[in-house]
Amino acid sequence: MNAPVGLVYSNHAPDALALGTVPEGEGIAVRLLAAPILPMDRLQLRGLYPWPVELPAIGGAAGCGIASEGTYAGQHVLLPIRCGTWRTWGRFSEADLVPVGDADPLQASMLVVNGATAHDLLSGLEPGCTVVQAPGTGTVSQLVDQLCAHRGIRCVSLVHRAPSRPLSEAVDRLPKELQADRALDGVGGETTARLARHVREGGVVHHYGAMSRQAPQLGVGDAIFRGVRLEGYWLRRASAQRPAGALHELLRELAALDLSVHVAGTWPLEAHQEALASRRPGVEVFVHA
Question: Model pTM?
Answer without folding.
Answer: 0.94
